[in-house]
Sequence to fold (83 residues):
Amino acid sequence: MSCGVRVLSAGMILAMFIAADLLGLGHSISSFGETLALALTFLGIGLIANVLIAYAVVQVMAERRQNRERMDAYDRSQPRQGR
Fold:
């Protein structure tokens, strides 16, 4: 089942590390480098958190749909009692 959530692949993470290395982040004590490194770090953490939250929401919605289908099948199998 395709849930529409993309997870960062190892290649994408490696590309981010290579880009940070090419920019010289973490190798010098310049304030720009440290600011950029912090910005990339916190943006990356935010991206990962959003992906995990989206994944959890998709899982909950799928489970809810399964529960509804099971309840509908159960209701159809039970005989109706008149009042």
User: Anything to note?
Assistant: Residues 67 and 73 are 10 Å apart (CA to CA). The two ends are 43 Å apart (CA to CA). Residues 10-77 form one domain.
